[in-house]
Amino acid sequence: MTVETQKQTLGFQTEVKQLLHLMIHSLYSNKEIFLRELVSNASDAADKLRFEALAKPELLEQDPELKIRISFDKEANTLTIEDNAIGMSRDEVLSHLGTIAKSGTAEFMQQLTGDQKKDSQLIGQFGVGFYSAFIVAKKVEVFTRRAGLAAEEGVLWASEGEGEFDIETINKPERGSRIVLHLKEDEKEFADGWRLRNIITKYSDHVALPIELPKEHYGEEDKPAEQEWEVVNRASALWTRPRTEVTEDEYKEFYKHVAHDFEDPLSWSHNKVEGKLEYTSLLYVPARAPFDLYQREAPRGLKLYVQRVFIMDQADEFLPLYLRFIKGVVDSNDLSLNVSREILQKDPVIDSMKTALTKRSLDMLEKMAKNDAESYAKVWAAFGQVLKEGPAEDFANKEKIAGLLRFASTNGTDGTQNVSLADYIGRVKEGQDKIYFLTGDSHDHIKNSPHLEVFRKKGIEVLLMSDRIDEWLMTYLTEFDGKTFVDVARGDLDLGALDSEEDKKAQEEVAKDKEALVERLNGVLKDQVAEVRVSHRLTDSPAILAIGEQDLGLQMRQILEASGQKVPESKPVFEFNPTHPLLEKLDNEADEDRFADLALILFDQAALAAGDSIKDPAAYVQRLNKLLVEMAG
Q1: 408: containing domain
Q2: 192 domain residue, yes or no
Q3: Are residues 225 and 247 in the same domain?
Q4: Residues 6+ apart with CB under 8 A from 306
Q5: Considering the chain, what percentage of its residues have pLDDT values greater than 70?
Q6: Burial of 612 per CB tally in 10 Å (0-12, 13-18, 19+)
């Protein structure tokens, strides 16, 4: 006997041990979900067999009627879930039942807090799957054989859910998997036909293959010699049924099945298209982000069926990347059954479907934003930064996506991102033809920025953008509803009609009056700035650094630096407030050395106020200390 066929005892991956412990202790309040998870896995395995059998019909082994059978033994206190689906080879058993082969597993584990309520929600994002069996079982046995392999290549996997599992080669004549749960003493309720029937009806009625339970007989005299089975679910693909015949609960349970989530979705859209193209789609908006949402290479996409035959999970060609959080199924009558990912990337039918499904997804979000602000606030909290990728990726829907974006603004105090662009436009001042915004690395920093002083004075609302992606977003989002966006920290601020003629005349006079001070400051700062000018932005602060019209802002510079890319050199514009006492003193300073020290201190302070770092902190401290000593006498 080779090593591979011997019985082996192996240790679980560390993450599996942690997950098992947390599931057993965190999900005790909703134990029955284990059956939903195991039925869902069996359904997925049946889908995979149907797909592989398109090319290799012999895999069906004279047993083409796929089904799931659930049986129980009250005396032995066991529950068995059996399918005649694809099954697993020894290598697949080791891969699927000993490890968690998901990207970001380590990051997921780091998020766990030890708080049972919070952790149970996180586990839901991760997907509980097969390991949920240990919520109710003290021991789990899996008898399996992959379709196409010989009977003697069956595999038995067994574990008590602690640190290790046993695996050995067995003889298994029939393909598929049989999972035997040896129930804990206090979980006998799950070895009961009525209880199991209720759970299946509640969670798995939509599963598109028969789920059978033993037919119960109430008199010994009419009990048949051979076990009879009865189908207890509807066993028809939910998305193929008319919307009027599908209940809200059925839609929710189908989402949990297709998304491997155990939280209800926030919204869904069920649509059948007939005409030039024929397909059905059922799209869902989840309630929370999966743990790997920001790993752009993570598996994503819709479950693809062709004429009700499962083709692939995570078909990502039907929605753009910024909608990667949308879950659901698409069932096409126009694609061939032997479609591949390569064909999907080139097929013009896919482009048409992608356009339509993208619009349907955006319409669903738009409807939620309009009619259910509370639910949309959850969407924004979970997926807002992903939606912000949209304007760059999807030019055709840029205006529609922009309408879904939410921002903080100077109208609020706590930094909540709840202001839509339509809200902002509805509140603009008379004569205001711009949408003003300011980006920065944190809300607390930008809400106190000197760049906002003139806007506060005039009562003009400014959008405050502190997400890492915001400056990049605004390079693609240049206008909305006919109004252009203006970064209040960039270029020479022009408030247009919001400045009165008196304001403009006063600004011109001050600029002319301070030409000598501009020249002196330029002499000191010429190596560090692109220009020195009188500021129209400031009312309280002495000085500020403005970004050149074509230059990168702080956020974009930090992103490029973090990714190891070379950052183009640029110099800021130094603007000063001519009415500030410090500038008045500076203007009257006759000692050029002292003038230079004060000018450099103001420049460094302006850099700090802008959220930037000081190029020479030691020199700044020396100048400041020198000034403090002089002030102290």
Answers
A1: 402-497
A2: yes
A3: no
A4: 331, 332, 333, 335, 336, 337, 339
A5: 89
A6: middle
**Look-up of token digits 């230079």:** 596
Which of 465, 588, 458 is CA-nearest to residue 517?
588
CB 486 within 8 A of CB 437: yes
Q: Are residues 61 and 207 in the same domain?
A: yes
Residues 510 and 546: their CA atoms lie apart, in Å, by 19
Segment 106-129 mean pLDDT: 55
Confidence of residue 2 (pLDDT cuts 50, 70, 90): very low
pLDDT in tens, 343-400: 677 778 888 999 999 999 999 999 999 999 999 999 999 999 999 999 999 999 999 9
SS in 3 state form for 310-348?
EEEEEECCCCCHHHCCCEEEEEECCCCCCCCHHHHHHCH
**One-letter amino acid of 442:** S
Q: What angle do CA 417, 421, 423 make, to 5 degrees?
A: 85
Residue 396 lies in a domain: no
The 3-state DSSP class for residue 211 equals strand
Residue closest to 403 by CA, chosen among 417, 392, 415, 419: 419
Answer left, alpha or beta for residue 27, where phi above 0 means left and psi between -120 and 50 means alpha: alpha
- My answer on whether 157 and 246 are in the same domain is no
488 CB-contact burial (10 Å; exposed 0-12 / middle 13-18 / buried 19+) = buried
154-159 and 279-285: which strand pairing?
unpaired
pLDDT in tens, 67-77: 999 999 999 99
12 burial via Cβ count (<10 Å: 0-12, 13-18, 19+): buried
Encode 279-295: b = buried (16+ Cβ within 10 Å), e = exposed. bbbbbbbbbbbbbbbee
Question: What spatial distance separates the first Cα and last Cα of the chain, rounded to whole Å?
Answer: 94
Q: 356 is written with which tokens?
A: 């339509």
Domain identity same for 298 and 415: no
Token pair of 404, please?
């879904």
